[in-house]
Design a protein that fits this description.
The chain is α/β, with parallel strands linked by helices. The chain has one domain: Rossmann fold. Helices cover 41% and strands 21% of the residues. The protein contains nine helices and six strands; from the N terminus they run H-H-E-E-H-H-E-H-H-H-E-E-E-H-H. Strands 1, 2, 3, 4, 5 and 6 form a six-stranded mixed sheet that branches. It starts with 5 loop residues before the first helix and ends in a 14-residue tail after the last helix.
Amino acid sequence: MRRIPLFLLLLTFLTLSGCAHKPVDLNKQEKFLSASPRSILIVPVVNNSVDITAADYMLSTLSIPLAERGYYVFPINAVKRVLEDDGMADSSLVHSAPTSKLANLFGADAVLYVVVEQWDAKYAVLTTTTTVALSYQIRDGKTDEVLWKNNVRRVYQPNSGGSSGGGLGALAAQLIVQAIVAGMEKGSPNYMPLARQANANALLRYPGPGIPPGPYAE
């Protein structure tokens, strides 16, 4: 019987090892599961981008995915008003306040903090690239401990496509359409769909980086 060279055995072992899939690490959810929050307070979003409207737009997208995930969510407009009356009109002040203080104001089990890291569009002649980057964090309303966190970045760029035939006339028509799309995107960047996709990616992917279903999940 012929001997198999040692390097071939090693190569086979390394190949099989590389095919193994790492199981989902649910230990990262242990603190969240142990705290078992039933209600989550969404506080005003901190905006680190250059777009002054980003925080309010982002804030408006957060209630639905959390409610659909099975948690009681406090009305964001009422929350904002109460915080302003309590001297915390600035979102940075809210994020720096003790979580237990914020939770006690509303009787919340946990608090969701969101920071807009990037919310911009880069323009070119025939296309516009829109980018949304966000960081999420949920803290315990009693201990101030971080129960869960995630970071998500989403990018949208209209498909420039390519010539599918038809000569110079078809190419010219295609360039005109692309220029119109780029102009529309420049006037109104496609932020909201990206923000909703980011929320789904950050919150709803479970098992994985998202949060477990809440007590009111269907």
